[in-house]
Amino acid sequence: MIKQIRTDQLQPGMYIHDLNCGWLDHPFVSNAFYVRDRATCDKIVNLGIRELYIDTLKGADVFTARPQAEVNADLERRLQEIARKQPDKAVVVELRDEAARARRLHGEASKLARLVLDDVRLGQPIRIERIDPLVDNMVDSLFRHQDALLPMARLKDLDDYNFEHSVGVAALLIAFGRAMKLPRDDIRQLAIGGLLHDIGKGQVPEAILNKPSRLTDDEYARMQSHVNESLRLIDGVPGVGPIARQVVAEHHERIDGSGYPNRLQGKEISLYGQMAAIVDVYDAITSDKVYNRGMPPTQAMKKLLEWSKHHFDPQLVQTFIRAVGIYPTGALVRLESNRMGVVVEQNEGKLLEPVVRVFYHAGQQHYVPPEIVDLAKVQDRIASCESYEKWKIDPHQWLPA
């Protein structure tokens, strides 16, 4: 049986089923492994992990621990409560009118992110004049209709992950800032911070960033150094204001003090740093990498809720979920009718009933004529969030164009 335990209950002889944290938040080669010694237990506690999951069929048990099914049921109930509290989300243009612009914009953003990181690797300064127009266009697009650009920002090539992750974080921060009703200038600075938040990784050897095996303590420290490297690189760059700087400086801090580089706690972390931490983790755990497959977005939302007990502000997590959706645009879903499709648009006030482009039948395992299904107007409902890779479906083919 899979059970959730506190890390202070972890003992040698247990089998960890899931470390219950993001891949960049620990140095182990896998999230699942047998615990052989006390030093491993201590290392996990020192990483700031508060709760994890053990497999009692493969190792020792904690008889009073909660089964994973019970934890998941509680998280599902909380998601349902959040869905009923969704605020209004204004749409300025129709999705079909914005989709083509958003697709072009995403391509431009990915190319620019690559150029900026290449400049850093070559010792060139950051040219903010190249970033400003892109940020303005991203803000404009997301304000017109965020369901056009956000699914594009989820699409990442394994070889270009570090560039496209920055684009995804920037887009999500714009949507988050809009949901928080922040001033437009503040949202622009959030986006600039998102694009530059990992710029210091240009100073970290790729052999460490993409290492498919366990990081040594020195390698893990080197990887964490990217935050201070990023701050050094943006220091004195015109147009990078205090908000963008806080995004860069604080996106790995956690409200319980377990983050890095400064182990800030609670209100020591700015609002913008707390927002960036939530977005950075969400984009990371939903993305495929050379050493790990991303999880479906709805599962990632549950993880954010679970981790908000210790690492994130619970109210901010709920606002982020409402901003992006329980079944975010671009997610592959399976309906109760056994049909499958991609979420193409959210319905105002109905987070559990988005608009889906249906194109596949899971039971019969073949494609069906594409059809737009508004779940707010039919009896069918979403049964599960699925993996594109598992079903060998190309997401690019089915997103709005």
Describe this structure in words.
- By secondary structure, this protein is an alpha+beta fold.
- The protein has 3 domains: 2-64; 95-324, Hypothetical protein af1432 (Orthogonal Bundle); 332-397, no CATH class.
- Helix content is 45%, strand content 14%.
- It has helices at 38-46, 68-83, 95-121, 128-154, 161-179, 184-196, 206-209, 217-224, 226-234, 242-250, 271-285, 297-307, 314-324, 388-391, and strands at residues 2-6, 15-18, 33-34, 51-55, 66-67, 332-335, 339-347, 350-361, 366-374, 382-386.
- The strands form 2 sheets. A 5-stranded antiparallel β-sheet has the order 3-2-4-1-5. A 5-stranded antiparallel β-sheet has the order 9-8-7-6-10.
- Strand 7 and strand 8 (350-361) form a beta hairpin.
- The longest helix is centred in the first third of the chain and has 27 residues, at 95-121.
- The protein is globular.
- The termini are far apart.
Walk me through the topology.
Blueprint: E1 2-6, E2 15-18, E3 33-34, H1 38-46, E4 51-55, E5 66-67, H2 68-83, H3 95-121, H4 128-154, H5 161-179, H6 184-196, H7 206-209, H8 217-224, H9 226-234, H10 242-250, H11 271-285, H12 297-307, H13 314-324, E6 332-335, E7 339-347, E8 350-361, E9 366-374, E10 382-386, H14 388-391
Antiparallel strand pairs: 1-4, 1-5, 2-3, 2-4, 6-7, 6-10, 7-8, 8-9
Helix pairs in contact: 2-12, 3-4, 3-5, 4-5, 4-6, 5-6, 5-11, 5-13, 6-10, 9-10, 10-11, 11-12
Protein name: HD-GYP domain-containing protein
Domain HD-GYP: 138-336
GO molecular function: phosphoric diester hydrolase activity
